[in-house]
Design brief:
Belongs to the CPA3 antiporters (TC 2.A.63) subunit C family. The protein is elongated, with a radius of gyration of 26 Å. The longest helix has 31 residues. Helix content is 69%, strand content 0%.
Amino acid sequence: MRPSIVLLLAVGVLFAAGTILLLERTLTRVLLGVMLLGNGANLLVLAAAWPGSPPIVGTADPAEMTDPLPQAMILTAIVITLGMTAFLLALAYRSWRLSGHDEVQDDAEDRRVRELAERDEGSDAEDLDTDETETVEVRA
C-alpha cells in the first residue's frame, strides 16, 4: 500500500505554511510556524511508514505488520513540539509584558552589519559610475 496523494499534499502545505510563518518577525507567528512544521514532520513520518496490520504477534503475517518505531518517533516528536511551543509561548508573553508587542527587534549588531553593507553597496555603485565615464583610447 502507498500513502494517498492527499496526505502528501497536506504534508507539503504544512511545511510551506510553517516555513513562511517562521520567517515573520512576530513571535506568535513563529510559534504557529513551529507547530505547523512539527505536525508536518509527524505526518511525513506517518506517510513514510504507511500503516499495515497491527504489530501484534499472532494476528497477522510478520511481513505485513507495521513497524512500531515510526509511531514511537512521532510520539517523541509530539513531546518535543509541545516543549518548543511552551518555550516560545513564554517568550512571546514575556516580550508582550515588557514592550506591549511580540515583534522581535533588530539587534545592534544586525543594524551595524546592515549599515556596513549599505555603505559597501554605495561605494560599489560609485566605482561603477566612474568606470563608465572613463574612455579608453586604442592606438593602432
